Each structure stands twice: as structure tokens, then as C-alpha cells.
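Slide 14.
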Amino acid sequence: MDTTQLLKGVLDMAVLAVIIDDDGYGYDIVRRLRAAGLDEVGDASVYGTLRRLYSAGALSSYVVPSDGGPHRKYYGINANGRAMLAEQRANWIHFADTLTRLLEQPQPAVPLLTNGDNS
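Slide 15: predicted structure.
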């Protein structure tokens, strides 16, 4: 199953979830998402999501100097982001429960066509 479209719909929530307890910089957040099992997440998608969440007031940011390379911009979730994540989590749980109930319903038997049967 191609999960690309599913991932697009939940990337904001996933990003907020991986920084709920520990701030992170862009590539670190990508790494955390992949380590959590979201292997298909793209770097550009995560960076765009971080910019969008920051613009929406869900994240704060700060720069940390680096001795061995460019400075890193860290993102942390703020009160608005925590509220956003709580709402998204509740919506996701409701949606997932609904879909699970739908998928667990008994499915009608589908008759098999035999060779030469066109009906």
C-alpha cells in the first residue's frame, strides 16, 4: 500500500508528536520520524511542515551554534502546538476507531467465477 497520501494528512501531527518532549532540528526530526517507522517521509516535506507549524504559532525556534558546521535551527512545541496536537490526537483516535470498526465488520462472500462463466 502506498502510504504517501496518508502521510501527507498526518505529517503535522507526527512532527508535533516527535518533538513533544525534546526539541529538535530539521534533520534530527526527519531521523526520529523514520526511526518511528515513517520510512517514506521526505526531508523537504518535514522542513515545509516545520515552517508551516512555526508560521501557525505551534512552534518556537532558536539557533544553536555548531563548532563543526553550520548553526542548527531547533524547533520546540509551545502551548499552541500542544493544544493543536491534543486536538489532532483526539481526531485521529476517533477516525482510527471508526475505520477499525468498519474493517472488522463481516464481509459478504464474493462468488468465484468459474471458467467460461460470464454472469
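Speaker note: Residues 79-104 form the longest helix (26 residues).
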